[in-house]
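Hi, here's the filled form for the chain we discussed.

Project: internal
Contact: R.S.
Residues: 137
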Amino acid sequence: MERTPGRGRPRQFCRDGCRQQAYLARRLAAAHGLGDDELVVAREALEELQSRLYCLQAALEDISRDLARSSEPEDVAEALAWLRENAEPVASMWIEPRTGERSTAGASSDPSDRAEPAGSEPAGSGPAGSGPAGSDA
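And the returned structure, exactly as it came back:
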């Protein structure tokens, strides 16, 4: 965001769309009793992020162990390639807060847009083949 010298308040948002998104997020947070530092995100997006982070953590452990055994240039190159392969999916992921509005402006009355209580999962929202909804496998 470019700052232009001049009078008045500095811009807080880069464009009007960003300001609108921030307004919607504040409004949704207030409706759900969330604080400024809390968000409502889709369970699927959170689980995908956790999965990618787990893979990155495992890759870090793998290369730490491998490089402790050998620090030959080809081993280091192989370790960096493995790390990059597992870091790129994390770096490419972006999670947006849910606004509860799919394609229209204004408040949504669709119950599927509402946050689920912690520990519950709506039927059919898990990955295919993951078992019945709400079961801990």
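Let me know if anything looks off before we file it.
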